Amino acid sequence: MRVAVGVTGGVAAYKAAELVRRLQQDGLEVEAILTRHAQEFITPLTFAALTGRKVITEMFSAEGDAPANVESAIEHIAVAQRIDCLVIAPATANTIAKLAQGIADDFLTTLYLATTVPVVIAPAMNVNMWEHAATQANLEILRSRGARIVAPDEGYLACGMVGAGRLAGVEAIAQGVFDVLGVRHDLAGETLLITAGPTCEDVDPVRFLTNRSSGKMGYAFAEAAHRRGARVILVSGPVSLAAPGGVEPVRVRTAEEMHRAVKEHLREATAVIMAAAVADFRPAVPQQTKIKRGAGSLSLELEATPDILADVARERFVATGGTAEHRGRLIIGFAAETDHVAERARAKLTAKGADLIVANDVTQEGAGFDVDTNIVTLFFREGGEVRLPQMSKFDVANRVLDELLRLRHPSSSPRSEFHASLDATRK
Ligand code: CTP
Q1: Catalytic residue of the set 74, 77, 151, 159
Q2: 212 closest CA partner among 202, 221, 200
């Protein structure tokens, strides 16, 4: 989705740069429009660098000139048609007045008239200007036309006065944009600790034991959770994927390192999702030099790696004085099976102490390693199961995150139609 960020001339104009970054973090495409007065406070170059695209500063190629070509003469129409939302931050009293009266004397105000997409306005001005009946009446007009007004904060203003008029926080403005776009932001406040990818257990300096895993499922979780407003710590074994923007990557190689990284970040986590394919065994004594081929066969002594998921669940149990009903930190595990999927998944649910196990039969086409889709069944500690049809790993992640929210707020969570239709398959 694409958002136009309109910046007008106020001291808070620099905060619009942060807003651009924040919207981009959630995967939105952003283009910036600066009024002439905005450029007294911040340069177009800042926005060009952030957005990687031309910043619109003038209605015409140069003040007073005829348009350089037809394209630039109708650019406000082109922008109006390609965006999904227009956000104006900061919006001065002057711009608000022009919008309310339909005055179109620069690119931004013309774009406002030319577009039919939702508009978010974040005013910033001196407290008296904010409280003035003219400003409030203009805002009322804009509100009645459906604009979302993100009210300014109270505090010390650049002019030295104290009161309402300070541009709202970047998060509040971004939330306004997400709301009007219908982007879910329901995981705000959660910190998700996600494991992904395989681990590698060294046999000698050139060989290692590992599990088949591309990391795609865990990375899809990281991206989906981040887009929905969660802070995401992604502990990943070696994979060829880049960490999604905005998540905090922690790279590890062995099960031991993954265990350590998870323990280190556990206290910050409100939920843990273990999508990693952790090697269950490692050589008891890794060799410091390359093992030579020799004549006969080779036996390797293997020892078990720590069960990270079970350990995390145990920690929760200990922290709550032994009550298994504690729902503070939710724990979601995976079960990659080749046979008796339901039976083994239920056994893992109990053995590992998870709230939810996402099970898949990796022998099925469209599920498992290296593919972009998955076919999973969710098994709940509270009982019951939900079988999902084949869907992209990103959609699987979102469905599981819906369940995470439902477990967090058993009675209040809004249930999507999609969810309701799937409930029909719940046993
Ligand atoms: N897991 C873990 N630490 C391990 C092994 C597994 O945290 N040492 C986690 C995985 O990330 C997954 C869940 O436990 O969320 C189940 O992993 P799976 O490989 O299916 O099961 P195992 O416990 O390894 O049992 P088995 O191999 O016998 O099926």
Answers
A1: 159
A2: 200
Structure-token pair, residue 45: 């170059």
85 is catalytic: no
Cβ–ligand 1 distance for 256 under 6 Å, the answer: no
- CA 311, CA 77: separation in Å to the nearest integer? 58
The span from the CA of 352 to the CA of 27, in Å, is 35
Which residues form the domain of 130? 2-181
Can you give the pLDDT at residue 415? 40
d(CA 129, CA 91): 12
Q: Is the CB of 272 under 6 A from ligand 1?
A: no
Query: What's the gap in Å between 289 CA and the centre of ligand 1?
Result: 30
Q: What is the CATH number of the domain that holds 297?
A: 3.40.50.10300
**Centroid of chain to Cα 214:** 21
pLDDT at 425 over 60: no
Question: Tokens standing for 416?
Answer: 């999507």
Q: Does residue 200 share a domain with residue 165?
A: no
Q: Domain check: are 121 and 238 in the same one?
A: no
The helix (H) or strand (E) run that includes residue 72 is helix 70-73
- Among the listed ranges 65-79, 132-146, 195-209, 347-361, which one has the minimum average pLDDT value? 65-79
Q: Of 116, 146, 181, which residue sits at a domain end?
A: 181
Mutate-to-test residue for ligand 1 from 332, 348, 355, 377, highest number of ligand atoms within 8 A of CB:
348
Q: Which residue lies with its CA nearest to atom 24 of ligand 1?
A: 280
